TrEMBL record:
Transmembrane segments: none annotated. Signal peptide: none annotated. The lineage of its organism: Eukaryota, Fungi, Dikarya, Ascomycota, Pezizomycotina. GO terms for cellular component: ribonuclease H2 complex. This is Ribonuclease H2 non-catalytic subunit-domain-containing protein. InterPro entries: RNase_H2_suC. It comes from Podospora fimiseda. It comes from the Eukaryota. GO terms for biological process: RNA catabolic process.
Amino acid sequence: MSKSTTTILEINSFSSPPQKITPNLLPCSIKHSGSIGPVSTSFWNPKISEDGKQVSFFRGRKLKGKTIKLPEGYKGVVGSVEESKEEEEDVVIDLDKEGGKLKVEGEFEEVVVWGMTEEVEGDDDVYVRGVEEWIEMSGRIHSFGEGK
């Protein structure tokens, strides 16, 4: 009996290496998807304060950032769906279908999570907790029964 393999999701980085980026998770919701063009530093310009903390302002509100490094052996990617010939209003990657393609636009090894007026704490912030829980679960399902 031979086993056949099916590609569920193909991740392409193409000919040039992906750009190194640092995603920023802001405590707000932005109802826009699509290109915004170049971002001016007058809109987003995080700085290190005198006490060594990350500080920035967004629409007049002070934010404090906390950097979360991904564990060794992990790499985050920012991807985009390869454009299809068909025009659709919303593009959905269906992982149950064969041959989904995701183009890698950038890679990251850390994420900055921003809080309103104070630095986020791991136990209190939904994003920090979600990243930590995902990494723990990922480690367990990929451990191949190594006693974990």
